Amino acid sequence: MDKTFFAGVNIEQVELATGARIGLPLRYYDWSGIMAHFPVSAAAVRNLLPSNKLKPVQLVPGTAILSLAAMEYRQISDLAPYNEFAIMVPAVYEPMVNIPSLPLLFPQSFKRFGFYVHHLPVTTQGACDCGVEIWGFPKIIAQISFEETNQVRRCQLQAEGKDIVTLEVEKMVTKGRAMNYRTYTVKDGQLLKTLIQAQGRFGIARFRGGASYALGDHPIAEELRALGMGETAVERLYAPQMQGMLHPAGERLPLI
């Protein structure tokens, strides 16, 4: 891994209500992840968004995207290792023109493109407390386990003794590169936009399937089932070894 990725980064200390001290940006020294984007009714996911100023990214008019992502954080600054599962809606804040597909294909060209985080279960209380208090991430404690074969990597999400979702992504050829993306969360009556920087080895495949999900019987699973998600992924990501930085919120935007 690149030891220079974190060089020269200014660290700001934040004390949580629990008394724990967290240095920001939070540095993720070693992690892996899988992600897949599935088609869904734009009207359905629009109801998940907390503000009319956020518009779901559309594949074609009337069809938006729901993103499922699972991460295994093996070494992090100021936190014990934990796993995480994200359920997100790719969206743009106050777009002048909501052009189908382009924000997802060329995220760096759309400065107000990001992933609205709808659910973000994690496996440790420390990760939950930190994410909720600093960024307003919608975290709960859950069971998140990974397994893999030579062909696929699979993540199972469970909570309260019930299955929520299992995500499976086919492995692919990876190469070293960087990617930056942003998240949207709600905290203190505002929309927070937060930069996440990442680099490492990953592969991306578009419009090829190669990912699947299975829903369980937990209330979150029922919520996802009601959205009528398509079964064929429109894009998938496989990242076996990464580094990252989760920054303090860079913008606080009005909800109304």
Explained architecture:
11% of the residues lie in helices and 55% in strands. It has 256 residues and is mostly beta strands. It has a single domain (12-254), classed as Acetoacetate decarboxylase-like (Beta Barrel), CATH 2.40.400. The chain is globular and about 45 Å long. The strands form three sheets. A seven-stranded mixed β-barrel has the order 3-6-7-8-12-13-15. Strands 9-10-11-14 form a four-stranded antiparallel beta sheet. The chain has four helices and 15 strands. The protein has helices at 42-46, 102-105, 125-135, 219-227, and strands spanning 12-15, 21-24, 26-41, 54-56, 58-60, 63-76, 82-93, 113-119, 143-148, 152-159, 162-170, 175-187, 190-206, 211-215, 235-254. The mean pLDDT is 95.
What topology emerges from the helices and strands here?
Blueprint: E1 12-15, E2 21-24, E3 26-41, H1 42-46, E4 54-56, E5 58-60, E6 63-76, E7 82-93, H2 102-105, E8 113-119, H3 125-135, E9 143-148, E10 152-159, E11 162-170, E12 175-187, E13 190-206, E14 211-215, H4 219-227, E15 235-254
Parallel strand pairs: 8-12
Antiparallel strand pairs: 1-2, 3-6, 3-15, 4-7, 5-6, 6-7, 7-8, 9-10, 10-11, 11-14, 12-13, 13-15
Structure summarized in a few sentences:
With 256 residues, the chain is mainly beta. It has one domain (12-254): Acetoacetate decarboxylase-like (Beta Barrel), CATH 2.40.400.10. Helices cover 11% and strands 55% of the residues.
